[in-house]
Write a structure and sequence with these properties.
alpha/beta; 4 domains; 6-stranded mixed beta sheet; 17 helices
Length: 453
């Protein structure tokens, strides 16, 4: 057989008959997802809901279903930026078919994301999330008996080098130069300024004194890996029976967990109230130690009628109640429930399911570092990611896989199972054991596919 040679560049034909095109088939995951959205009437509902935000005359915009499908693709494929979403939707034939675009049609540009994000308010994105949540409810994937709540930090699209003082407006470098002048050193050399900043003691950055010039809504925060960045805080409410995301809220990163929990619970209850005439009712709230506060436990149990499972922080001092018998009763009731078997079981579920949602957002969805700026824009993106997360849950319940990558991994597992079966049938008896061991370990990561897919 002779070696094939690459043909020299030549002029492409101007017209190509449709019958001459190579046959192609859409991605099975996106084909099934389109079928799921069509059965729900998602596109017709979107066009009806978006009508008040557009004029009746003028050039037609892209269909609302296309816009939100592209955002779903950003989560399912792990595209962090809107430019990456637009480029892949233009380049990949399977995504073109998912969006409903033919080969000769131009797909939406990345600038369309900015136009739509400015046009639609945050409440509309929350409405879309509630619509997907109702789809999850119709498939029996919402129990709402116990809800796990936890928060994580998302790195903002801003640098600590672009900080400015709130009182004077001076930049961080100007602030360091002023400290050098007070110390009797010359701030003219840029390298000397950097060395002085590294060596000086007591260096701290406070959100009360500093803010970002490029993203004022972001806050200085300590990340999970110990580094310091400008960030936001995303708080998830997860159904501990099914793993469905019942609510999500984005806050400034310096807002404490005890200050944001009640707001997240109210948002979750509002989302559940939209699920039909007899919606599921939130009964139990399960968190970690960061949410433990006596007043908060009293408010949730006595005022809201919720049952809390919040582990207690270690304290060497004896707590004094100053006559507040209600707070004392709810505090010790929460302690006894958390230390019981049911509390331990719910705590394990919270650690598994809520942390899994963080992994799906920040790793699979590639939302660990944001590409948008502003609390409202970040909240819109997180709401659509949460809706896509719930769509993946429905897809996993119906078709067995929740992401396109998970479906590809499932195909790989099927191939290796067939190989092992062929080895067991056709290999000699003395070689079957050793041959099977050489085939299976080649893809050890496939064992993690169900949790990530």
């Amino acid at each position: 057989m002779a070696i094939g040679k690459r043909k020299k560049p030549k002029q492409q034909p101007l017209w190509i008959a449709h019958s001459d095109l190579a046959p192609r088939g859409g991605h099975p995951f996106y084909t099934r997802l389109n079928r799921l959205l069509d059965d729900d009437g998602f596109d017709a509902w979107l066009e009806l809901e978006c009508a008040p935000y557009f004029s009746e005359v003028g050039r037609p915009s892209i269909p609302p279903g296309v816009y939100f499908r592209m955002l779903f693709v950003g989560y399912l494929e792990g595209f962090a930026s809107e430019r990456a979403i637009a480029w892949h939707c233009c380049d990949r034939m399977s995504l073109r078919e998912f969006l409903g675009y033919q080969l000769h049609e131009k797909t939406p540009d990345h600038s369309s994301f900015t136009v739509w994000r400015k046009r639609l308010p945050l409440e509309f994105y929350n409405t879309v999330f509630q619509r997907i949540l109702s789809m999850v409810h119709r498939h029996g994937l919402i129990d709402a008996y116990a809800t796990g709540v936890d928060s994580t930090t998302l790195e903002a699209n801003a640098s600590l080098r672009r900080l400015a003082r709130k009182d004077t407006g001076s930049t961080y470098r100007e602030y360091v130069k002023e400290l050098m002048r007070e110390a009797g050193e010359d701030p003219g050399d840029a390298a000397a300024v950097v060395r002085f900043d590294k060596k000086r003691k007591g260096k701290k950055l406070s959100n009360r004194e500093w803010q970002s010039e490029t993203d004022p809504d972001s806050r200085i925060a300590r990340m999970k890996d110990g580094t310091t960045h400008l960030a936001y805080k995303s708080e998830h409410a997860i159904d501990l029976a099914t793993g469905a995301m019942l609510g999500i809220k984005v806050y400034p990163a310096d807002q404490g967990d005890t200050a944001s929990l009640e707001d997240t619970i109210e948002t979750t209850e509002e989302n559940l109230a939209t699920l039909g005439d007899e919606p599921p009712e939130l009964l139990c709230v399960v968190t970690d130690k960061g949410y433990h506060q006596a007043d908060l436990i009293k408010d949730l149990n006595a005022d809201k009628g919720l049952t809390t499972y919040i582990p207690e922080r270690r304290s060497e001092q004896r707590r004094r109640w100053h006559g507040d018998t209600k707070a004392c009763r709810e505090f010790h009731g929460n302690r006894s429930r958390t230390r019981g078997n049911e509390g331990k079981r719910l705590g394990r579920l919270r650690s598994e399911l809520v942390e899994r949602s963080f992994a799906m957002f920040k790793r699979s969805g590639n939302l660990g570092r944001l590409t948008l700026r502003g609390l409202e824009n970040v909240s819109k993106r997180c709401l659509i990611h949460a809706a896509a997360y719930n769509l993946g849950l429905v897809m996993r319940a119906i078709f067995g896989q929740g992401t396109p990558k998970g479906m590809a991994d499932a195909l790989g597992r099927l191939i290796f199972e067939l190989l092992n079966l062929l080895v067991a049938i056709f290999a000699p008896p003395e070689m079957q054991g050793s041959a099977k061991q050489t085939v299976t370990p080649r893809l050890p990561y496939l064992s993690m596919a169900p949790a990530c897919g």
